[in-house]
Amino acid sequence: MARGQQKIQSQQKNAKKQSGQKKKQGHDQKAAAKAALIYTCTVCRTQMPDPKTFKQHFESKHPKTPLPPELADVQA
């Protein structure tokens, strides 16, 4: 019967360890994703990861608004 008790304790310890790692890992992913969004649309405040996506967004969502100077030389 001793092995049964050890097995239960080992499973509980492993489950606690795994849940701690998942919480830590999920938080890091959110922070990394947020840090990757460095370009912000001046009209609607939407964030984008790169200038190409930013220019495509600006041309499709805000066609009547003049293009910002930082997007003038970007090729979409």
TrEMBL record:
Residues 1-32, 53-76 are annotated as: Disordered. GO terms for molecular function: zinc ion binding. Residues 1-37 form the Small EDRK-rich factor-like N-terminal domain. GO terms for biological process: regulation of translation. It is found in: Cytoplasm; Nucleus. It comes from the Eukaryota. Residues 14-25 have a biased composition (Basic residues). Residues 53-62 have a biased composition (Basic and acidic residues). The keyword Protein biosynthesis does not apply. Pfam families: SERF-like_N, zf-met. Residues 1-13 have a biased composition (Low complexity). Its main location: cytoplasm. Transmembrane segments: none annotated. Residues 39-61 form the C2H2-type domain. This is Zinc finger protein 706. It comes from Mustela putorius furo (European domestic ferret). Transcription repressor involved in the exit of embryonic stem cells (ESCs) from self-renewal. Acts by repressing expression of KLF4. One of its GO terms (cellular component) is nucleus. InterPro entries: MBS1/2-like (IPR045230), SERF-like_N (IPR007513), ZNF706/At2g23090_sf (IPR026939), Znf_C2H2_type (IPR013087). Keywords: Cytoplasm, Metal-binding, Nucleus, Repressor, Translation regulation, Zinc, Zinc-finger.
